[in-house]
Q: What sequence folds into this?
């Protein structure tokens, strides 16, 4: 989750580093940019990432995702509904939805979300208003929806990977641990290596 104010390095340098390290998706999360700035930044990321098989997702803003030819949009519980997003975008965009419990997860899956953010796993700066539920919530999601793609989210660092792996985690969404590092690429490599251990154990 890329937010300029959270970055130790310049935001574009951070993006370049994580793409080089093998991140397969960047979610642009900017709450204070003007619409024009947000569209321009999304387009820059798409131009940088798409040739290297990294997707670009826009947080909250379906209109920006469509205007900038992004790969997807990620919707919060107070954003546009999945139904309304599909009405405008069809299946031209992947739609992710944040979920913070069983009821929200049920609604997101029933609504046709392509991926569910499941959290918060741990205390983090992005949503300090939410009570962390820990890997137990992820394990419950996977048990209930074993075929629905998920991203564990919320205060995740490389040190948390063993507990997340034990819960069955196959993907993570990370903000501060990556953006806040002076070596964001190295953090991404560590995260990917930890997830690869899980994948190898499942073979």
A:
């Amino acid at each position: 989750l890329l937010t300029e104010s959270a970055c130790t390095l310049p935001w574009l340098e951070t993006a370049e580093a994580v793409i080089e390290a093998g991140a397969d998706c960047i979610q642009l999360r900017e709450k204070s940019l003007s619409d024009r700035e947000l569209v321009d930044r999304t387009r820059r990321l798409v131009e940088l990432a798409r040739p290297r098989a990294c997707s670009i997702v826009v947080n909250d803003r379906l209109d920006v995702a469509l205007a900038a030819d992004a790969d997807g949009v990620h919707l919060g519980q107070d954003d546009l509904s999945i139904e309304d997003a599909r009405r405008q975008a069809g299946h031209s965009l992947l739609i992710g939805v944040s979920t913070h419990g069983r009821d929200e997860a049920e609604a997101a899956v029933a609504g046709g979300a392509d991926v569910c953010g499941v959290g918060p796993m741990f205390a983090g700066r992005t949503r300090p208003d939410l009570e962390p539920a820990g890997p137990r919530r992820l394990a419950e999601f996977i048990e209930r929806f074993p075929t629905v793609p998920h991203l564990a989210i919320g205060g995740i660092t490389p040190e948390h990977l063993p507990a997340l792996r034990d819960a069955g985690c196959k993907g993570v969404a990370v903000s501060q641990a990556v953006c806040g590092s002076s070596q964001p690429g190295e953090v991404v490599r560590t995260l990917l290596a930890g997830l690869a251990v899980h994948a190898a154990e499942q073979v």
